[in-house]
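Researcher: Structure prediction, please.
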Amino acid sequence: MPTTSIRVTHATKEILRSLAQQEHTSIQTFVLKAALEYRRRRILELGNEAYAVLRADPTAWAGELKDRRAWEVTLGDGLSDE
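Model: Predicted structure follows.
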């Protein structure tokens, strides 16, 4: 896999080295996992913020609930969970 260099301060490198060591992994792998986790958390935060805006508007929230009820019938498709 191709790589690239990223400049960080010595203090940042030491923090990353320590954290990677605690996880028994390389700095490269630790940084990848940290970036993926940050992205996942940020997506969830943005989704929560969007739902908060939606819930603050009673008309829009009523429309959301109506849409959810329309989709709930798809849960009873008669198929097994396997």
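Model: The radius of gyration is 22 Å.
Researcher: Thanks, that helps.
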